[in-house]
Amino acid sequence: MVSILIVAHSAQLAEGVRELVEQVSGGRVVIAAVGGDLDGGLGTSIEQVVSALRRIATPAGVLILADLKGAILSAEMALDEIGNIRAQISDAPLVEGAYLAAIEASVGATLEEVAAAALQAYTMHKLH
Amino acid sequence: MAETTVTIHHHHGLHARPAALLYRRTRQYQSTITIQNLNRPEYGELLISPINLLRLSVREGDEVRLRAIGEDADLAIADISTLISTNFGD
Hints:
The complex is a heterodimer of chains A (128) and B (90).
Chain A: E1 3-8, H1 11-25, E2 31-35, H2 46-56, E3 62-66, H3 69-82, E4 87-89, H4 94-106, H5 111-119
Helix pairs in contact in A: 1-4, 2-3, 4-5
Chain B: E1 2-7, H1 16-26, E2 32-37, E3 45-47, H2 50-56, E4 63-69, H3 73-85
Antiparallel strand pairs in B: 1-4, 2-3, 2-4
């Protein structure tokens, strides 16, 4: 089953998103959250992303969701460092993307399907 | 084809956990299963998927029409309406 990694500039933000999507995944999906720099400040740490990716790596793959561009850059560098791992970085908005990805992953969907579900967030407005 | 109309009593409507439970249950069937929020018919009849359940804005008290087309349609509709009428196990 595809696992999900949340990367945010704040540990609390990453953890909050993880808590939210953990509930909809019904405990079926492995979801990790990393945020903040190594000193506990705001930022993202490549080391933390590398270690989280190694922890939750699965043959089905990992979908990475990020809050801001800096988190994308850290994720890219982390993937470069690890090398051989099945993972994809999502361009989806963090909260909606993680929510949709977690539900899709929970039915045993492929990494491509989970990534596509996350990107569907761009097709809807939340104000109605 | 099988079809039923049910009222959503869950206080979250069809969002978050109930939406996820509903989607997971529909994926257990071969049939194509759609949903329409009869209180907001302008959103139309949509395939049950996580994004479509967000789009439909189903709230507590709304009535939804479920339709299934396929070999296991009757079983699917019976099972899904039970899931909803038992309030998703809450």
